[in-house]
Amino acid sequence: MLAILIIITLVLHAVLTLGSIKVWKTVEKTNPVSLAKVFFVSMAVRLIVSVAIFAISLMLMKDDVDAIKLFTILFVIIYFLLLAFDTIYFYCSLKMLNNKKK
């Protein structure tokens, strides 16, 4: 059960990350001024989906305390790694966009 939940978490975070990148690229080409707003909206969506995934996972594993602890640790690590990736990607995109303007 734990392995399945971790795989589901990884897949959903991968989909969110790839979707965010696609949206950022589209906004960057069409309306670069609103890129920061799109970044913050995508981070809010990621947070809401992550909380939902986490809550559902806890309900499914309510009897196994060790699995809950392990899942919580792995979930937090995955969340913050992908958050750092998104932030670095966004920063680099803005930097490249500013270099194009000059």
How is the topology of this model organized?
Blueprint (H helix, E strand, L loop, with lengths): L1 H29 L4 H26 L4 H37 L1
Helix pairs in contact: 1-2, 1-3, 2-3
Please bin the fraction of helical residues.
over 70%
How does the helix and strand content classify structurally? mainly alpha
Number of strands: 0
Low-confidence stretches: none
What profile does the largest beta sheet have? none
Shape: elongated
N-to-C terminal Cα separation, in Å? Answer: 53 Å
Give the overall average pLDDT. 87
**Discrete helix count:** 3
Order of helices and strands: HHH
Q: What is the CA-based Rg, rounded?
A: 16 Å
- Note the beta-strand portion: under 5%
Notes on the protein architecture:
Helix content is 90%, strand content 0%. The N and C termini lie far apart (53 Å). The protein has three helices and no strands. With 102 residues, the protein is mainly alpha-helical. It has helices at residues 2-30, 35-60, 65-101. Helix 1 (2-30) packs antiparallel against helix 2 (35-60), helix 1 runs parallel beside helix 3 (65-101) and helix 2 (35-60) runs antiparallel to helix 3. The relative contact order is 0.16.
